[in-house]
Design goal:
The complex is a heterodimer of chains A (292) and B (427). With 292 residues, chain A is mainly alpha-helical. Helices cover 66% and strands 1% of the residues of chain A. Classes of the chains: A mainly alpha (292), B alpha+beta (427). The interface between A and B is large, with 42 and 54 residues.
């Protein structure tokens, strides 16, 4: 009503916030997310503090988890099932796949419950809700760096004992590809978290779903193993996580089958998931308190 | 623009907030599919809140129904109203916890909302870590918190324990620390919902003093919701009364309080509860109160010698072995008076409408106006889970029938104990 008068009255200038009903689909405020970067950093610190308080082994779990998983993969898929590992030591092969996969799985699992786990806080105070999932994926990134360092230590050991492994030029692409993995995990996670405000089943399904997803990714087998079954290969290549894992192996082990097409596909998929996720999330965050 | 001119910092125009009544989504996919399947077959929806009239399904409730309000810089604005009048909804919209359905809010400056003290406090973290965390949640940068840290610690009176995890704090210390963080924010607008209801008297006074300073000296704006009229009197220089989602009064604090007191309705003796809001989200789903009547009365005014008879009707959605009920009594100005000892309503089966009549003896209450809530909870008293608690306040008045009693004075509190027993008397 007073829309046209407002611009002429000096007292009405300089509003910093205007709250309106939930409007379009693209009502996204990323600038604010940047303003709250200190909060994001604090959430990251808190994630670490809280996770390992009152545990005996503390942060050692970050290393124990992938170590044990790698050993089990090595025994079950390498020794018992006798699956090929592209000619590199099985231990390194599985650890490479598992490190990248754990990073992705953590990103998804830890963001997928954003709204439900934080409804208490979200119901009492406003801050950009995206700081929560963003801090979760940053936490996962730090975990990944630590696990990556452990991988390097083992790599050096195997290299020193004469294994045929080498770093290739792909290494230059690894930081970007890992960033992509993080964004893909964030995208998928926040899509799920937006939907869980209405359907709690998804929260249960996601843990299980991520596990299944792993078997559709070349974590415990090399992509080259599927060369004889082209249909299966197409299916696995439809998985956006295939390219990042293969790139990581190509970079650090000198094996794996990477094509420009599969990388491009994976990147496009990531962007799509992230955009959809942010749009859904921004829409849900405004009124989810009424439904949770 | 001269500095003496009143500068609006909050401008609310035509603000509305609508909530859907009854079932809001199934919560799980299975429930939604079940409901959909039932509709397809023309059967009754198994997930409807029990007792809900199907015609009312999807009916809406306006928590705020067209609020216009301008708040100027440096004002300490009190917001009062009965439960369900829309106070909390207004604060939630102002602090951006949920979005309005219609209308607009314009804000100049940062809003620090304290709808609950200690939001975001993490038990495992120390007092100091929590100050940073809480400050950041409320919108401060790290540098700002660094600068304020000594003041915050001093105000909180928790200096000796600042590096101890807050899970070892007493509830009083916890609240003090939380309030200290919020009170030292550099935000231009502070929004508070009854944060002072906790903490000891001395600290409450300190908080009120701090907030007055914030408004009077720093020129910041305070919005304060409370049921405690004396804190409203102490802090606020302007007050609005909300009723049924509208501002019914805006202006002088004393007048506002008088109007708020008058909104009591002792002429109502029948309440329909099937469709009113509940205090918590889960209340009213497994057990639902449908009606409440003051038996044999035309108005709910009781002489203190009279017994109050109340009839309630209710349904359950699942079998219960024991259901407990208590009354939560409050004085008209919302000061809590007390509760009744829980009684067991007995076992219940779904599908039946139960009627219970109970008697309450108001003889211990001093003359004046009161209201009560009904609180229904499950049989396990130790870890009682609230089954139903309608937001409706059941108002009643107690009148004095004993002519030897002087007129009830304001400072006497609410309880009228029986006379002391004289054991020995000597001349």
């Amino acid at each position: 009503m007073a829309e046209n008068i407002q611009n002429t009255r000096p007292a009405d200038e300089g509003w910093t916030t205007i709250i309106r009903p939930r409007t379009g689909w693209f009502d996204i405020n990323l600038k604010e997310l940047w303003q709250y970067r200190d909060l994001t950093v604090m959430f990251v610190k808190r994630n670490f503090t809280v996770l390992y308080k009152q545990t005996i082994l503390g942060p050692a779990w970050i290393l124990l988890n992938p170590l044990i998983t790698t050993l089990i993969f090595n025994v079950v898929f390498g020794n018992m099932a006798g699956m090929p590992t592209d000619g590199v030591p099985g231990f390194l092969f599985y650890m490479a796949g598992n490190t990248v996969w754990t990073f992705f799985a953590n990103c998804v699992n830890n963001t997928a419950n954003t709204f439900v786990t934080n409804s208490q806080v979200f119901g009492k105070v406003y801050f950009p809700r995206l700081t929560m999932p963003v801090s979760q994926v940053l936490t996962s990134l730090i975990n990944f760096l630590i696990q990556g360092a452990m991988y390097l230590v083992f790599w050096l050991y195997f290299f020193a004992t004469g294994a045929e492994v080498r770093f290739t030029l792909w290494t230059l692409a690894v930081p970007l590809v890992m960033l992509q993995v993080m964004l893909l995990g964030l995208g998928v996670g926040i899509i799920v978290s937006s939907l869980t405000t209405k359907y709690r089943d998804l929260a249960i399904a996601v843990g299980f779903g991520v596990q299944l997803w792993m078997y559709a990714s070349p974590v415990v087998y090399p992509l080259s193993m599927l060369d004889e079954s082209p249909r299966l290969k197409v299916l696995v290549e439809l998985n956006p996580m295939t390219a990042p894992i293969e790139v990581f192996r190509a970079a650090t082990l000198g094996t794996g089958s990477v094509s420009a097409g599969s990388i491009l596909y994976s990147v496009v998929f990531t962007i799509a998931a992230l955009v959809l996720g942010v749009v859904l999330f921004s829409r849900i965050e405004k009124t989810f308190m009424d439904t949770v | 623009m001269s500095t003496t001119e009143k500068r609006p910092v909050i401008q609310v125009t035509g603000l509305k907030k609508q909530y859907k009544l009854g079932q809001i989504g199934g919560g799980t996919l299975t429930h939604d599919l079940q409901s959909w399947w039932a509709r397809v077959r023309g059967k009754e929806d198994p997930n409807t809140v029990i007792g809900t009239d199907q015609r009312l399904f999807g009916q809406t409730f306006m928590a705020l129904n067209g609020v216009d309000l301008t708040v100027y810089q440096g004002e300490a604005l009190g917001i009062i109203g009965r439960n369900g009048a829309g106070k909390s909804t207004l604060l939630k919209l102002l602090s951006r916890i949920t979005a309005p359905t219609e209308g607009e809010i314009r804000i100049r400056g940062r809003v620090a909302s304290m709808l609950e003290v200690g939001t975001g406090f993490n038990n495992e973290m120390t007092g100091r870590e929590n100050i940073y965390m809480n400050g950041a949640i409320l919108g401060m940068t790290r540098a700002e918190i660094d600068a304020k840290l000594p003041q915050i610690i001093e105000f909180s009176e928790c200096g000796d324990f600042i590096d101890t995890p807050v899970k070892r704090y007493s509830s009083g210390m916890f609240v003090k620390l939380a309030f200290a963080v919020a009170a030292h924010l550099d935000s231009e607008i502070m929004v508070m919902d009854e944060v002072l209801a906790v903490g000891d008297m001395k600290f409450q006074q300190k908080c009120l003093g701090k907030m007055s300073d914030v408004a009077n000296q720093d020129g910041r704006t305070v919005l304060y919701v409370s049921h405690n009229m004396s804190t409203i009197r102490q802090l606020c220089n302007r007050c609005i009364v909300l009723d049924k989602g509208k501002v019914i009064f805006d202006g002088d604090v004393e007048q506002a309080i008088a109007i708020y007191m008058d909104t009591t309705d002792v002429n109502v003796v029948h309440y329909d509860l099937a469709h009113v809001a509940r205090m918590t989200g889960s209340a009213g789903k497994r057990f639902r109160l449908e009606t409440l009547d003051f038996v044999g009365k035309e108005s709910s005014v009781f002489a203190d010698t009279e017994k109050m008879r109340v009839k309630i009707t209710w349904r359950v959605a699942e079998p219960f072995a024991g259901i407990h009920m208590k009354m939560n009594l409050h004085a008209r100005d919302s000061t809590p008076v007390g509760i009744t000892h829980p009684v067991d309503l007995g076992a219940a089966e779904p599908g039946k409408l139960y009627t219970t009549v109970f008697e309450f003896d108001p003889s211990l209450l001093g003359e004046g106006q009161y209201y009560f809530y009904l609180d229904i909870f499950d049989g396990a008293l130790r870890q009682a889970v609230c089954l139903d608690k309608p937001v409706t306040e059941f108002a009643f008045e107690v009148t004095n029938s004993d002519l030897t009693m002087p007129e009830w004075a304001a400072g006497w509190g609410r309880i009228h104990f029986p006379p002391v027993k004289l054991l020995e008397a000597e001349a």
